Amino acid sequence: GLWGTTLTENTAENRELYVKTTLRELLVYIVFLVDICLLTYGMTSSNAYYYTKVMSELFLQTSSDGRVSFQSIGSMADFWVYAQGPLLDNLYWTKWYNNESLAAHGTQSYIYYENLLLGVPRMRQLKVKNNSCVVHDDFKEEISGCYDVYSEDKEERVSFGLINGTAWKYHSEEELGGSSHWGRLTSYSGGGYYIDLKLTREESAEALQVLKEKLWLDRGTRVVFIDFSVYNANINLFCVLRLVVEFPATGGAIPSWQIRTVKLIRYVSAWDFFIVACEIVFCVFIFYYVVEEILELRIHKLQYFTSIWNILDVVVILLSIVAIGFHIFRTIEVNRLLGELLKHPDTYADFEFLAFWQTQYNNMNAVNLFFAWIKIFKYISFNKTMTQLSSTLARCAKDILGFAIMFFIVFFAYAQLGYLLFGTQVENFSTFVKCIFTQFRIILGDFDYNSIDNANRVLGPIYFVTYVFFVFFVLLNMFLAIINDTYSEVKEELSSQKDELQLSDILKQSYNRTLMRLKLKKERISNVQKALQNGTKELDFEDFKNSLKELGHADHEITAAFSRFDKDGNHILDEEEQQQMKHELEEKRVKKGQENKPTVALNTEIENLGKSYGDNNLDENLTYVEARNNHTNKASWVSKEEFQVLLQRVLQLEQSINSIGSKIDAVVNKLDVLERNKLKRKDLSGKLL
């Protein structure tokens, strides 16, 4: 049916049905994969990178008279120099490069003459309370106050300074509609003290001067955020910028930034409307796969989740449904925000929330596309070559997991050692998490040895040499040894297994049948003659069958043709039986050539072969068994329908016997492999001892 899969159809005993069903699933899935690729790549553009690059160079690297840029901020004084100089210069573009006024654009600022500054920028700070930490008794007379590192429970929430504006009064995260931010040092809440700058440079400069004179930043300040958004209509992209300066309890300043270039307005160009069509197709596919998974779940219940491929199916579907829901939400929310901004152009345009979730949406689509590509292995894994990877990983999973425990015990022990030895002097070891990634970099050869050597000239080299020896040369190579040993076993087993019907066989048969229908092939009866030209005195039924199946003939046709001439019923045509078949087939060819009749199908010849040899006037319903044993005994004839039923039963019985034989062979091969592995382990244990 429409939702028929290998899990809903009875393919256990029918290899051909299994391959055909898998092939159909693969073709449908390829269409889905092409659609999801168009959707994912249709939402991205190479312009986004250059847009981000231009904005980052402008706001991060530009300095005032060659002194302070954002990246070089190291103190509160540097912050004010940057805020009152390069920041305002880069935010408010009022003149062309020849000093001609940009009055044609009105009061709005167009950065680089192309990028509209949306609303006004916002500056926000978070503070901690005085006496949020304890000063030792010996220093209480010299040190008057104590300001701890930032945490929400120590956050200052009382008004200070002039107490006559948003810059001096605390506002909660709910009031500002903000969200938390993960900085270099810690995570910060979305509340705080804020000021919205003005539409002109002069007014904004005055507001910043007041803040500086009244000590808006003091010892309790732990972070300052500068948020603003720009829009480029030429490429239909938003760039949402957040400049962050953290003031740690140690003193000084640590700058960081977050620049998100996103496409929030979706449907503008002709390409965008093509993507709309792809989105509709995508929704149809998701509905199709949801129904398919429900049918499979109804049949297999919880057993369905024992396969990693089924779990991957569910993950792809769930991520796709979430993506569809967020896409609808994003479209509604962008229209609402733009509507409010048009009504109040002098307010702060908060696109930070949407930009954050748009980025997560893009990340989710990237992960979904990754899983979608990996899922292709599900449909090609029935091939011997393709199963080597999956079989190897599945078989060695337990061994790898067990050894991974040993590996990570040693790995984390070295990480803690590195953190304690070099954490105060080397940036790559300044936190435990950084130690972990640094050690992975050592394995890949990306490491600064001089830094740990300078930090500790005795223990530094010892740490490095022992880590590389035990982790890289010993433990890491053990993983490769486990995988390599398992791969050898899997490859040996696959080579000893009996060849089953493969995808290539199905494609070859379909190709040959198509050629026959188009009458681009010679008479089918010549195919039988080709099967006989093997140069041997005896022809086995399996060889005869395989030769004709490659040429596109059905099993029942091949069986009937072979049985007609297999006089002794031993499934082998001796030299005399082959000559008899060749002789009769040649007579048929000559006869058809004399009559100038069109190409005859093999099934027609099989019907003729099923009649009495040498007696073409017998009834068409004579079975080949009676024709062989008694050419004139018409009383024992059976109808054509009865013959087909009996033939089908014989074929089913033959398939069942072949299946049982294959399973027995597989068990025997498995026992042989286990025995060889046992001997290998004994030899290895003997060598180790």
TrEMBL record:
Q: What is its main location?
A: membrane
Instruction: Give the domain of life.
Output: Eukaryota
Checking Gene3D superfamilies in the record gives: 1.10.287.70, 1.20.5.340, EF-hand, Voltage-gated potassium channels. Chain C
User: Care to name a GO molecular-function term for this sequence?
Assistant: calcium channel activity
Annotated ranges, domain EF-hand: 553-588
Q: Which PROSITE patterns match?
A: EF_HAND_2
What membrane topology does the annotation report for this chain? Multi-pass membrane protein
Query: Which cysteine pairs make disulfide bonds?
Result: 133-146
Give the GO biological process terms. detection of mechanical stimulus
The entry marks the following residues as binding Ca(2+), namely: 566, 568, 577
Would you name any one GO CC term? cytoplasmic vesicle
Give the UniProt family note.
Answer: Belongs to the polycystin family.
Which named protein is this? Polycystic kidney disease 2-like 1 protein
| Natural source organism | Phoenicopterus ruber ruber
